[in-house]
Amino acid sequence: MVVHLLDGTYELFRHFYGIRRFTKGEDPPFGAVIGVLNTVLQMFETGATHLAVATDHVIESFRNDLWTGYKTGDGMEPALVAQFQPLEDGLAAMGVAVWPMTDLEADDGLASGARIAAENDAVEKICIWTPDKDLAQCVRDDRVVQVDRKTQQIRNADAVRAKFGVDPALIPDYLALVGDSADGYPGIQGIGAVTAARLINRHGKLEDFPADVLGDRRELALLFKNLATLRTDAPLFHDVDELRWRGPTAPFDAFVQRTGDARIVARCQAAASGHPRGQ
């Protein structure tokens, strides 16, 4: 089987700002939610059977206590923030496994889900649907891959090495040196992508760098590595079959009526008819 893990926060942002290009700045109250639900439904319609969605139920996480500059919800569009809870409710009503993350982030949820799913020998492949570069650390050969929907790229371990110059497991070390502007930490001044990859390939992980390489910047680099390292111990599920989609639940019809796109109900039912129930 193939397990699909979807970055719900990224998808909500993508649909929210995508819709804005066609609505002249007006924000339908459930526009992005319906967009994400349609994206998920399309995955089921094209053959996905096991799928889960992780969301940032709370934007801030434990990382904000480690670095004051770490990303927050400040400046987020209120119309976008207001759609997080409806998205989680809609996915649950649709019968989709949804993981609203609080102390951890959605990326930690995806990493944890990938780790748990990979422990099951019946899982042939795990696809992590997000362009976020920190998820590259979860890629393992051809079995755990990262899918960038925007560019239609599937990134296996060789592709991660080609893009970043380091093995997937060393992505946290790489990001610690070059920084991640999306997450709000700057990396180590004077070290760019090429230099970072060269140092890591020469010395390995940051903890193994000779003392004179980073000097008094070592502790800061290790802090940034801690920020970049995704947690994989969230107890999200026990049996991978918990991620099997068996169709919408009874409340889904009422939810869709509230959001204003009743067409999705018939599509959902048609897609569900092709997914074995109770297996």
Task: List the main descriptive attributes of the protein structure presented here.
279 residues, 6-stranded mixed sheet, globular, 6 strands, DNA polymerase, domain 1, 2 domains
Number of separate structural domains: 2
Biggest sheet: strand arrangement: 3-2-1-4-5-6
> Order of SSEs, N→C?
EHHEHHHEHEEEHHHHHHH
CATH architecture of the largest domain: 3-Layer(aba) Sandwich
**Spans where pLDDT lies below 50 across 5 or more residues:** none
Task: Please write the CATH class name of the largest domain.
Answer: Alpha Beta
Q: Report mean pLDDT, rounded to a whole number.
A: 94
Tally the helices.
13
How is the main sheet built?
6 strands, mixed
Q: Quaternary status of these chains? A: single chain
Annotated CATH homologous superfamily of the largest domain = 5'-nuclease
**N→C terminal distance:** 13 Å
Shape: globular
Kindly identify the CATH topology of the largest domain: Rossmann fold
Structure overview:
By secondary structure, the chain is an alpha/beta fold. It has helices at 8-23, 31-45, 63-66, 78-81, 84-93, 106-118, 157-164, 171-178, 193-203, 211-214, 218-228, 252-259, 263-272, and strands at 2-7, 50-56, 97-101, 125-129, 144-148, 153-155. It has two domains: 2-162 and 231-272, Rossmann fold; 165-228, DNA polymerase, domain 1 (Orthogonal Bundle), CATH 1.10.150. Helix content is 44%, strand content 11%. It has a six-stranded mixed β-sheet with strand order 3-2-1-4-5-6, sandwiched between helices. It is globular and about 65 Å long. The two termini are 13 Å apart. The model has no long low-confidence stretch (mean pLDDT 94).
